[in-house]
Design goal:
disordered N terminus; 22% strand; 12 helices; 31% helix; 6-stranded antiparallel β-sheet; alpha+beta; disordered C terminus; single chain
Length: 455
């Protein structure tokens, strides 16, 4: 992805001053071979409480209230909109067919709101409809935790894989997704079904590491040894454009540790889901920084979303100052890994804590939001207050009554996540429209990017 020209600084200043118009509709060595798995990674998930009964009339009224509040989200806008200019320039080039042989990539880090893939999935669908599909991009290997899914890819794994990392931590060598898989026996398999034309596979090299083969539609396209000095490894292959059925198979009784697949096209947009249930922003700081930076740099993202805060809001030990310090470190790491990417910090959504008799908002949300805003602005990132877009403090009650949030008063329904995705999409595209207008005036270019005569 090409660097943004210096003249984009003029556009940043202009976009900052422009009003937002609403739019309608190295590394440490890994530990010894992992212990054998003692629990099923696809264990049964905790049941979500049922929402209180609501009459059809009350539900319709709540839905109308939510819709009216969400409609005001573009007026609230993205704070420090100039930080999105590098993304908008790449969107402009993509839309005007200034090809560079690779897709525009978006990485969305987050907690369970992200991991569900309904929210990033809606953004993926909307952006790909406008700018073209870029394939799934990075997809975690196998099914590393209960409830894992990607709406644009199908994956599976054999029973001999052990999940490492996640929110319970580990040795830190879990890479871009914060979770990895390990196996020690021959014949263990991973599969992926998705569309694309460029394949990569991310794995870990280690002394005495085993080998694996990769098949595409039943034919072996490569064999990889993971034996070597500790560090990240990558397998790459060119494939015919279209759908693919991929299979990885371990070849020896030796340790193999893997991170995930990349399957993408040579254009369009990817929207890559990097969420973990229960995650907090400091999870990124528990990863080996050299490995994490190498993975992010290899993805070369145009935009990084940092969407945490729900779990932090329920903790009493976070203060504005301590959480801002944590986000300072996270944003510094991300900036070092992707120096020309736009970074959008998404503020914590509204939520309630259920008790036996009632549901009350956690007291920590205000502190977390203030820390997120301060850190974003200090690091020249954009900031979007999701709670404000939902309707402000206490809005979750109406979202539950409208059938847009679940009975735990924390997570949204699929329809609710799609609404959040649509809201952010229209907000970004509204600002992108302003950017294009200013760009053409400043640079004297017409709609297709070619120069026009000016006086």
């Amino acid at each position: 992805m090409k660097r943004i020209l210096p003249r984009a600084a003029l556009l940043a200043l202009a976009l900052t001053a422009a009003p937002l118009l609403p739019q309608s509709s190295s590394t440490r060595q890994s530990s010894a071979s992992p212990k054998k798995k003692t629990a099923n990674p696809a264990a049964r998930r905790r049941a979500v409480p049922k929402p209180p009964p609501v009459s059809p009339q009350a539900r319709a009224e709540a839905a109308a209230t939510v819709e009216s509040r969400v409609r005001l989200a573009p007026e609230t806008g993205i704070e420090n909109a100039a930080a999105m200019v590098p993304l908008y320039e790449l969107m402009y080039r993509l839309e005007n067919h200034v090809e560079n042989g690779q897709p525009l990539r978006v990485l969305q880090f987050g907690d369970s709101h992200t991991a569900a893939d309904d929210w990033p999935g809606q953004l993926r669908a909307r952006f790909q409809q406008r700018f073209g599909p870029g394939g799934p991009g990075f997809v975690q290997a196998g099914r590393p935790y209960a409830g894992f899914r990607r709406l644009d890819a199908k994956s599976s794994m054999s029973r001999g894989w052990q999940t490492l990392g996640g929110i319970r931590g580990g040795d830190g060598f879990d890479g871009i997704a914060g979770v990895s898989l390990a196996a020690t026996r021959a014949g263990e398999t991973l599969t992926l079904e998705a569309e694309g034309e460029v394949l990569e596979f991310y794995y870990w090299k280690q002394p005495g590491g085993g080998s694996f083969s990769i098949e595409e539609n039943g034919s072996i396209i490569g064999e990889v040894s993971t034996d070597g000095s500790p560090g990240p490894g990558y397998f790459r292959a060119e494939l015919p454009a279209g759908p693919h059925s991929l299979l990885l198979r371990t070849m020896h009784d030796a340790p193999v540790r893997v991170f995930g697949w990349v399957l993408e096209r040579r254009g369009g947009i990817t929207w890559e889901t990097l969420g973990l249930n229960g995650a907090q922003a400091d999870l990124l700081l528990k990863q080996d920084p050299a490995l994490l930076k190498d993975h992010i740099a290899r993805r070369n993202p145009a935009l990084i979303l940092v969407a945490y805060g729900t779990n932090e809001s329920r903790r009493r030990d976070w203060t504005v100052e301590t959480y801002q310090q944590t986000l300072d470190a996270v944003l510094t790491l991300l900036r070092e890994a992707a120096p020309v990417a736009s970074i959008l910090v998404v503020g914590a959504p509204d939520q309630f804590i259920r008790t036996r008799r009632t549901a009350v908002p956690p007291s920590g949300t205000d502190q977390i939001l203030e820390a997120q805003r301060r850190a974003a602005l200090a690091h020249r990132c954009a900031f979007w207050n999701l709670r404000s877009a939902m309707g402000g403090p206490g809005a979750m009650r109406e979202w539950v009554r409208a059938g847009l949030a679940q009975g735990d008063y924390v997570h949204l329904t699929a329809a609710g996540y799609r609404l959040v995705g649509d809201t952010l999409y229209e907000l970004i595209m509204g600002q992108y429209g302003i950017f294009v207008s200013i760009r053409n005036k400043i640079l004297g270019e017409n709609g297709n990017g070619s120069p026009v005569k000016t006086h």
